[in-house]
Write a structure and sequence with these properties.
about 450 residues; alpha/beta; Aspartate Aminotransferase, domain 1; globular
Length: about 450
Amino acid sequence: MSTLEHLRDRLRGFFPALGRDTVFLDNAGGSQVPRHVIDAVGRYMVDSFSQLGGDYPTSARASATVQRARALVKSFVNGGDGAGNLGLAPGHGLGDVILGPSATALVHLIANGYADAKDAAQREGRPWARTKVVVCTAGHEANIWPWYRLQGRGFEIVPWDVEPVETRAGSSGRAVVLGPRVETLRRLLDDRTLLVAFPQVSNILGETWDCRAVASEARRAGARSFIDGVAHAPHHAPDVREIGCDWYVYSTYKVYGPHMGALYGRREAWAQLTGPNHPFIPREETARKWELGGACHEGCAAINALWDYALDTLGEPREGTPDLDRGVFARAFQRFADLERPLLDRLMEALTSNPRVRVIGAPTPEPPRVCTVSFVVDGAASADVARAGNAEGLGVRWGHFYSKRLVEQIGLDPADGVVRVSLAHYNSHEDVERFASFLSRRARA
């Protein structure tokens, strides 16, 4: 057994849900959790279940748990000090993190915050010239509809749709793919642009798009950039310093943790806004001002367990490793990507070798992409294909996966949409072979 496959077997042993009645092939909708997370929640409930801010030991432990979760997210996304190599002003990398029930809820918070800031400026007679938001419609609705809702509050929403982009060559042939073109974005930007909302990875196509270029173009126009990293973060440790974005959001329940969302923002971006929490809370206390009712305490304990799982992935000791070292996350998630690549290769082979199957997007496993692949079967409803797989214990799904606008742009009926298969590093070769066997039989039916 190779070193990589030995690692796969070892990591699968941390996930008690694996090997039971479902082959988990819907990981883009939510990942499984390792034992580290399960144990962390239990320990919190026994040892630290308390209200925050008290001067007694249990409350102090609870407060420390929540504070550490924000620090962990900040480390995970590389949101600490420094400006990276982007030529930005010193302090660009300094930011704050808030936690919430979902990425969708967090985007709504910030969108409403911009509308509140504009309203306040107008009441006070201050200028607010930037009322234009460019929204890439190829992403999840979480980073689309919150901005579209601002049309009723004096903002202009400019859709940025997909177009045919460069022809790609790969082991599976050549294909013209659809994607957002940066050249088009340049034409949409002007001195009234407030913000550009953009997905790092398509949760339908699985393709990674150049959010660094998007953030750079937005910054050049004096605008902010809001990156949806939900489909990226399960596969690669995000790097907001490298991207140069103002906002970055992801879902912790898709990154082997609890059903919550996490949002990083640069302090300059936070400074433009006033959080919606009680008026006596200082606006500089970012988390208290924006986390309405506070973050889920036991969820924070679960978020913190990602550190222990990353250390165990690398085989690094708890003692002697610098706490919340960003390098640990980067190396661990690189291991995850290495484990996923052969699975993706085999999945794409199974899909593209079947003449009745049409992969939506580039039919190649070559980077830049993650292990999320959507397809349709000629002459068969996506719902029927997925349900047939479900009956055989394959956890696949069908639909538009909240990327309804992209599915429409591709030319498919969003009511039926696509079949989506999404893998994580803990999937096995047997999982993929079971799916390949099912697909071969189903596509002949």
